[in-house]
Amino acid sequence: MKSCSVLLTGLASAGMILQMACTPAVKAEYPEKWPEVERYIQENFLSYVDTTSALPKPYCFALNPGTLYYWDLYFINEGLMIEGFWEQARNNVDNFVYEIEKLGFIPNAHGWGEDRSQTPYFNMMVRSYWEKAPENEKDTAWLRKAYNAVLKEYEFWTNTNGNTIEDHRTPIEGLQRYSNHADTAALVEFYDKVLKIRFKLSDDASVAEKVTVASNRLSEAETMDFTPRFEGRCNEYIPVDLNSNLYQYEKDLAFYEQELGIRGPINWEKQAEKRAALIDQYLWNEERGLYLDYDFVNQRHSPVAALTTLMPMYWHFASEDKAARIRENLSLFQYPGGLVVCETLPQEIHYQWGDAAVWAPMQFIAIGAMKNYGYRRQTHDIAMRWLNTVTRNFVDPQPATYPPFKYGDGTRHPGYIYEKYTRDGQINDAEYPCSEMMGWTAATFLKALQEVNP
């Protein structure tokens, strides 16, 4: 229910001007603790940094935690730049430049997740750093090198200029899908060691069956991770998030060429406009008022609505009418602990990125999406729920105990922030015990804090 009051703002020759001013519905639980949480982040952010001999020094990378994950680093960089950690933010970008030059793509996870990539955000890291960093922290030679890397990664995702590492093509030219490039042996091993247990699959499946199942699930891991969005057939879906991000790549490639004073063979603005039109044509569901992943084999939308519906709003190419419909339907994902990844539907399998988990990057995207369209109350409320969830568990972590895992001794203590939370606002130990973490949890806290306490 909206809480709005009509304010008389003045008189004009045409009559009275009325403005609807909406009072935020979500109240702060521990505002006096926000400075303490922010101070903890400031003092510890750079403690979650590591390096490896496989990457060039001094390109140390921020952890999320434990390894170099791809899409995590976009959100981490946004937090680092809020706090002015410019050197580390640039190191993170330079790591990815190095990986693209060496491998032709950015792996899902450095060292062990190199048979697929992950939802592409590298380009956005480049532009964000270029626009926000102080002048003495950047130069056009760096931008030219980064631009070449963005272009090379774009070719990986669109299979242009002979890039055949992975096949992202779909029957709809101009729209891409997730994929992987694991060989048969790796896919069979993935089935036997991970999927068989995780999804309670048959021991008696043939090699061909194992490869089909494993390939779809490994492609699914190229997005956020296991999710009900694709019904176990990720290779047959055109995803909202991937294509929305590739739209932004096309917009930014035009921006880089203008900044560098160069002109390539592609009109990137027209390329972006074409992709946006295709997204509206194939991924928009008028009946539900949402962008939904598209099953190109059965020519229908996914039955599972996901918060990725916000991506065209986050990159600001959704029409005002479509944005209004999405805002109206945001309640599908809204819980006391924050926005969950997918709507709640009857499911036999618990998905890590499904209807029970509240993840930091989805709150970050939702804040940006709502703010782009001037939805002040929704922006405030999403930010406030995240601040409340993180701060509540900083003060009094619940559950207070957990099965000992890779980190800790099984007992939680006040004074930390965590990797993931539940829709009820507690620490999320589903699938594996949740660890203390900085990463995108900290970055989203800082983003939310900016919105409610500018």
Can you walk through the features of this model?
- The protein is mainly alpha-helical and 454 residues long.
- The protein is 43% helix and 9% strand.
- It has helices spanning 34-44, 72-82, 86-103, 122-132, 140-158, 184-198, 207-220, 240-260, 268-283, 311-314, 320-328, 360-372, 376-395, 439-452, and strands spanning 4-12, 15-22, 49-50, 61-62, 237-238, 284-285, 290-291, 294-295, 300-301, 334-335, 338-339, 357-358, 421-422.
- It has a 3-stranded antiparallel β-sheet with strand order 5-8-9.
- A hairpin with a 4-residue loop joins β6 (284-285) and β7.
- α2 packs antiparallel against α3 and α3 (86-103) packs across α5.
- The longest helix is centred in the middle third of the chain and has 21 residues, at 240-260.
- The radius of gyration is 22 Å and the shape is globular.
- Residues 1-21 have low confidence and may be disordered.
